[in-house]
Write a structure and sequence with these properties.
Elements (H helix, E strand, L loop, with lengths): L21 H7 L3 E9 L9 H21 L7 E5 L3 E6 L12 H15 L8 E9 L1 E3 L2 E3 L1 H10 L2 H10 L3 E5 L1 H6 L14 E7 L2 E10 L18 E3 L5 E3 L13
Helix pairs in contact: 2-3
Length: about 260
């Protein structure tokens, strides 16, 4: 496996994705923060080895840090946690949520396209990102709040996973109905609100609607190992498009026709 060239990284990974001091969370406790979850599709696929996963992690964190910086999100206004194949970012109420859609999604899409254009299949990065808004509370282990759970459910939406697998998109960005109505619908920048598609999802005990945006589809997705024991069903997009099957590996997510 050839390592990607230096220009494939939007930002060097010398600056790790460290946690923001917990004192920031105390100041934001109970306030409506922007919650951003992201992870890499197929990170644990057997076709990747440990070195591949290290490269993918480094690329992902570098792209995320660079995109946050380019979107004018100060380091002091963002609490960050490693999540293995991704990250949780809680952004201060002082930062406009709209900036975490546009220009953040655009920066992510450009950086992913640049990396994937030169990357081998083993280190190609398809990124899933979920955005929601709500109050969070720090506790002894980190964070607490229903909004954290709800954002995680958006990230695990079968419709998002299926769309990435079917289209080969570099970025799958999904937002809650509140975020769409309050922010996405009023965008006037580089991202057209009409490019978001309304979808229905059911993940564990959560059943809701959301809005999904895909960016970049110039390269086919890396081969994925099938899961013969995974649940089956129908994922519904808005309109008349139906995709059969469930690409979630080893979990109990179900979805309804």
């Amino acid at each position: 496996m050839d390592n990607p060239p230096p220009e494939a990284f939007t930002r060097t990974v010398d600056a790790p994705l460290d946690r923001t001091p917990a004192g920031a969370l105390t100041r934001w406790s109970g306030l409506n923060c922007s919650i951003l979850f992201c992870d890499v599709a197929g990170f644990g696929d057997p076709s990747r080895d440990d070195e591949d996963r290290r490269v993918v992690r480094d690329v992902t964190y570098g792209i995320l840090l660079s995109a946050l910086e380019a979107s004018d999100v100060p380091a002091a206004d963002a609490y960050r946690e490693h999540r293995g194949d991704g990250a949780l970012v809680v952004v201060s109420p002082a930062v406009p949520t709209a900036s975490l859609i546009d220009p953040l999604a655009a920066h992510l899409a450009v950086a992913l396209r640049r990396h994937n254009h030169r990357a081998s299949a083993a280190v190609r990065v398809q990124l899933r990102v979920a955005l929601h808004v709500g109050p969070v509370t720090p506790d002894a282990e980190g964070l607490n709040g229903q909004v954290i759970i709800q954002t995680a459910r958006l990230l695990e939406a079968p419709v998002l996973k299926t769309a990435l697998a079917e289209t080969g998109a570099d970025l799958g960005f999904i937002v809650s109905p509140f975020v769409y109505e309050a922010f996405v619908a009023h965008l006037h920048g580089g991202i057209d609100p009409a490019s978001f598609e309304r979808v229905t999802l059911k993940v564990k005990e959560t059943k809701t609607e959301a809005w999904m945006y895909l960016a970049g589809s110039g390269n086919p997705p890396a081969p994925r190992s099938p899961d013969p024991d995974g649940p089956q069903g129908t994922t519904i997009f808005s309109g008349d498009v139906h995709v059969r099957g469930d690409l979630v590996l080893g979990n109990k997510i179900t979805h309804e026709p």
